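Form 7-S
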Amino acid sequence: MDSWRRLTRKMFGARNVSGDYELLAGDTSHRTGTSPSTFSNSSTRRRSWRSIFRACIQKFTIRRLLIAIALIPVVLVIAILWPGIPPSYDDIRLYERRLPQHDLSLSSQANPPNRYLRFPGHLWGHGFNNILQEIILMSYLASISNMSFVFEDYTWSHTPFPYTIYDFALRPTHVPINAFISGPPAGGPTLGPRAISAEFWEKVCPNKEKKRVISSEYAPNDADGIVMIDWWHKELVATNDTCVEVDSTSHDVFDRFFFGGPRLLSLWPELSSSPILTNFSWSPLVLSAIARNFALLRPSTPESLYDFSSSTTFKGMVAVHLRRGDYQRHCPNLALWGALYMGMNEHPSLPDRFDPSPYSDAPHKVLEGYYLEHCYPSTSQIVARLHEVRKEHPNLHRVYLLSNGWAWWLDELKLALEEDGWDELISSLDIHLDAEQFYVSMAVDMAVAEKAEVFVGNGFSSLTSNVVMLRMAKDLDPSTNRFL
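Output:
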């Protein structure tokens, strides 16, 4: 603290200027006349302000100004480093390297020989749930083709540095996928060949001339989901090459329009019963965060806290996904585009439907209001919606808020929900996480939402779509999946 004071004095020449302020201390508010003393005090005040202004100008010399400018990068660096250096996840990378399928001697002895499928043009630089959607379908395609899926890091940036800057804080450029998920898409046990890492791929498929490349150029990109999968499946089983890459420079194998529409639903009967979903699990790191917060989540039994393989739930809990931040701009755009709910959120078994057609002839503000109510609802709309859900599910008495909203907004919402009769209110900000868990916090939120007795999601969100998919894969009652 003394060093900061010395630095301040050096920059601005700080000194005791109480004498300057004493000129303004006289209270003349009780005077109502225009006596000479009134004009004297007024003149004195004007001289005082001029003196202060001149003093300030004198203090900000060129030298001090240059020092202040030079310190701006220092202040920014301190602000960026203040949250700390992100973890390297070296222990999880070592875990991936030691998966049994990464033993070269065993891999060379496999009969029939293993075949590997990699998608080098995979999505990166987007939110975790956009990437998870893609991982699930790509690993499913590899599985039905009896090939080893090549899993990649969750990649935020391709810079050569281990960290990048996001929201004035350091963020890992790469996080191993096993920090988020386990199961077949991440190299876990499955009925067919186990998935391998991109690092191991470089060992077993080092020569470019030995790789078979299949282009997405002629793939039926606009077709129904089952048609797309059948086309790729035929292409993959028709080749006997060990190393197969998909070239998606023409167009993505599964693009955002595919995940954002109902074409995905034709895949659901086969996908829901495949090992990709039946053996899907959150990573031990995510589960450790769930266990660490057992006192907040209050499972009915200690065992159910870790049991994500069945339909056990956190009794009495409704989990609500409230996307804020960029959705303030995104949701009005959805009204302009005439967007509907994301693919899985359009499943016919779900009770809530989104239908903007009655507002097609209404003024745009009316249509936009309908979208905002379901995409970016106000506090009063959230309270009213949860009130309706509680009427249909009377056992509910506690709320878990999955949100990227500001703390002050979440506090206001909690207060409003408390006034509406909810007993316990928890948000994402209440969950205690260590440094490694912090960067997979979205998966922690999703794990809680997956096990909630009722989930109320944002139908336009990929996070909500993935949670609904995982809950449906566990045969939870479709009526427990609701939307804002």
